[in-house]
């Protein structure tokens, strides 16, 4: 199972710029690069049957090497008729891993774990309703979202060497990406 995240056009630009990287068959992507890749996918908005609208923005990514995962805390603004025209601020807290999908050369969030959806100032009933929706919101905002798609040009060098992305490991320094021979188990 892959976990981690490839950011922006870093995948092969890092490999091509540093011949020693290919000799090691891997490289590291920094937390800042990961943050940039995730941030480009926001803001996002979701409606709940026309009753509540949730606007998600400003994701903050944290590395969790002890679990080989990433954490995202995403700002949420809830508004709509059910909330009597008022807006409430809060945060969605989610841990997740990523997987590489070779068929379309994408990196996707997977194995989401909702840590909480906290909203400031909501009534207990409204808070409970949003908590029930929290897992669905986390899945809609991150699950299987394509965080990056590698182009054929990105993969040309590794393809030529018979390599492809393999294991991703979250460390204190960032995401370590190992390259593996194609079709290796």
TrEMBL record:
It comes from the Bacteria. This is DUF1439 domain-containing protein. It comes from Diaphorobacter ruginosibacter.
